[in-house]
Amino acid sequence: MPSRDKIIVALDVPDLAAGEKLVDQLFPYVGMFKVGLEFYTAAGPAAIRMIKERGGKVFADLKLHDIPNTVAGATRALVRLGVDMLNVHAAGGRSMMEAAAAAAREEAAAVGRPAPVLIAVTVLTSLDGEALRHEVGIEREVEEQVVRWARLARDSGLDGVVASPREIRAIREACGPEFVIVTPGVRPAGADLGDQRRVMTPAAALQEGASYLVIGRPITAAPDPAAAARAIEREMEGII
Ligand code: C5P
Predict the structure, then answer these.
(1) How far is CA 206 from CA 56, 146, 235, in A?
(2) Does the record bear Lyase in its keywords (predicted)?
């Protein structure tokens, strides 16, 4: 896979016009764009259609988490919009994930498209061990819980997980070489960390076993986003 197809650019923007500007600058230097809660809540399905109309792929990072019937319905709606990747919370459990996987498969077949890559969110990286134990009430170590949920996602028929750079290796070992691992918290050498704390360079994250890298501000806040994306791709070329 060429390095540009391994980069997913996070479009954390407040409105459709800002998203359009970035996609026009970045496509085709970047193949996939992440639409998260901010952009989707502001612009709705138009955010996804805008990217698809320009030829880009879409990762709908909406972290679905509800009863199985509701998550299945939302999954079908996202498939009809043409998303290429979407995610649900592993905390929703096996029946919710199985319902999402079945809905993705069935709806994709019905509209004649390949099924989207369906991945799970495990432990949010904003939760540390202390918060997991005392606030959420989960007694396990963070990494143990991450791996437990990654296995559950795989056993429920999902394709992979979103995982921070430091979790990649344990998940890869537990879930095998085909499991998709999508990794945010990536910063090119020397870049501004923003609010990210535990970061890795793109090359290091790929070496750890990441399948895709989610990169936002190092590209979107650069004076020339396309040049920033191409520089990151060159940094990645050496190792894939
Ligand atoms: O700008 P930056 O590269 O930090 O953007 C990273 C993207 O990945 C953001 O959209 C952020 O919400 C998302 N993300 C993250 N850490 C996680 C999960 C998602 O940074 N654990």
Answers:
(1) 22, 19, 11
(2) yes
